[in-house]
Design a protein that fits this description.
With 185 residues, this protein is mainly α. 59% of the residues lie in helices and 2% in strands.
């Protein structure tokens, strides 16, 4: 099992057949994920920066086959077939939404497994992905609003997203990773 470097991981997206917009999104997510991981590491928390970067680059490789909720599971299979580490495969599988519980996986028709992020690296990539819409950095509340429209106002993943943000910001010493802009009135 191996861990490619940044350039090799990007090349893997192209080779898998990911469209340009997906590759560009993955690169943006990786940049933010590394920023978050560095902030967490500065606080004395152990985090594998290379795993975060490569996992973030490859997190949407499953979109080379499908854009449905199953793209995480499909992506996990792809990276395993490529001979990459199990840690990368789990990042890819566990980044969808705020993770997918066993019960949710069964309802969605996914292989029955708990796909919620467990390790710090998995959580960082999952969170960074929720702050990048396309190539643009967004506030988590925008993502939560979008999810509530798709899944319903009381879906449990909304609370998991808020809890994930709280955990990451706490680990980063209170640093928020949102874009702030002054809007003209």
């Amino acid at each position: 099992m191996r861990l490619p470097d940044r350039a090799e991981a990007i090349e893997m997206l192209w080779e898998a057949g990911c469209p340009r917009n997906v590759v560009e999104h993955c690169i943006k997510v990786a940049s933010l994920a590394v920023e978050i991981a560095e902030a967490v590491r500065e606080r004395g928390v152990k985090v594998d920066l290379r795993l975060v970067e490569v996992g973030a680059i490859l997190h949407d490789i499953g979109r080379s086959r499908t854009h449905g909720v199953e793209h995480g599971v499909v992506g996990g299979r792809i990276v395993r077939k490529m001979g990459l580490s199990e840690e990368v495969a789990r990042i890819v599988e566990r980044h969808v939404g705020a993770g997918i519980t066993l019960e949710e996986a069964v309802k969605l028709g996914l292989p029955p497994e708990d796909y919620t992020p467990k390790t710090l690296e998995e959580k960082i990539v999952c969170y960074a992905d929720k702050l990048i819409e396309g190539e643009k950095r967004v506030d988590l509340e925008e993502t939560i609003h979008k999810f509530s429209q798709e899944l319903g106002e009381d879906h449990p993943s909304l609370e998991r997203l808020r809890a994930l943000q709280e955990e990451i910001i706490k680990l980063a010493g209170g640093k928020a990773f949102i874009e702030t802009s002054i809007k003209a009135s």
